[in-house]
Amino acid sequence: MPPGASVAPPRASRVPGLAGSPAPLGLFSRAARRSRRPLVPSPARPSARARAVAASGADALSAAERAELDLRRRAEAVRARLARREDEAAAAERARPYRPWKTKQDDDSIYDLTPEESEVLAQTPEYWAARDRLRDAAFDRTVYGDVLSEFAASVDVAATRETCHRVWRDPAALRRFVPGLERCDPAPDGVCVEAELYYLPFGDARLHELQTLRFMAHRARDEPGVAIHWQSTDGFPCGVNAAFRDADAAADGGGEGGGILTTVELEFYCHLPKALAEREGVMKVALDVEERIAECLGAFATLAEATEMSHGEAGGEGEEDVAWVAAGVAPEGFGLVGADGEPVARDRPTKVSRRAMERAARAFEERAGRKPLTVEVLREMGKATR
């Protein structure tokens, strides 16, 4: 600066409140305000090809590329919608109380609940639905009629009263002469039996459905040589009372010695399945039951007389591989020979091999997927012997 020159005073700042401040301070304040403004990136400059396509109005993607893009967008939309549904279902499941079962196969988990869990779940309809399914699976739900049907019949047997009582008392012997009695398993107490009776109405499988009657029975009366009374306690409501007395030898024209000829008086009672009685009529079903009772007494007489002649028990060790086919089961000319060498006939019971029947029943069940009828087992046995 030359000597004697004067220095001009600094310009005052135009910012309010900063009058008299030097200019550099005012410039710094404006720069600071600019620095606090949000930085907005400038849009990328489109390429020359993009500008040319935009100017011409043509699609930048080919038809195949556009279709692929649309497909991807739809897939993403569907995936997002499914994800939302899964999240909503998971949230709803978390909001519900604890339920241990999802399917019928999981119903047994009810038994693993604590008392607190059972108390909570007892307020839900799913709990009682599972309980109903368990009860239906464990118990016979067949509905029986309210009217008690009673039947009476008698037969003379060439055996003592004690032998007749012994045959009626033996569960294994009952399976031999009671038509359709497929299972009669003694209980550990020695008094009760668990029975399963198959009843095919009128013997016609084409028009009628096989009835499976399950029940527990016990000996309500058991007097050797006098009477025996089997009565059901659960399941199929039924009972049978067999009374034994010496037959009148003069009236029957034979019989030597007291008790050689015994009269067996049978009383059978039951409540018929309600659906069967309503569909076929009580009288029609009752007539069919009477025919089965007649077959039963005929088969019983044959078995009791054979037991009397052998002087042995009806269910002795020598009879382990023996099963009796009731009269009327096999048709005429069936061609199957029994264990005694006699052909299986319709007019009398026939003795066959129990093991062979069991093998034939298993073979039929594996092939057909269901339990066979007795006549079907016999037919299977006939095939095996040919």
How would you sum up this structure, described in words?
The chain folds into 3 domains: 88-138, no CATH class; 143-318, START domain (Alpha-D-Glucose-1,6-Bisphosphate, Chain A, domain 4); 321-386, no CATH class. 41% of the residues lie in helices and 18% in strands. It is elongated, with a radius of gyration of 47 Å. The model is unreliable at 101-105, 250-259 and 315-319 (pLDDT under 50). It has helices spanning 23-35, 48-56, 63-95, 115-121, 125-138, 161-169, 171-177, 249-252, 274-280, 282-310, 354-368, 374-385; strands spanning 149-157, 181-186, 192-199, 211-223, 227-235, 238-246, 262-270, 322-325, 350-353. With 386 residues, the protein is an alpha+beta fold. α9 packs across α10 (282-310) and α11 (354-368) crosses α12 (374-385). The chain is built from 12 helices and 9 strands. The longest helix has 33 residues, at 63-95.
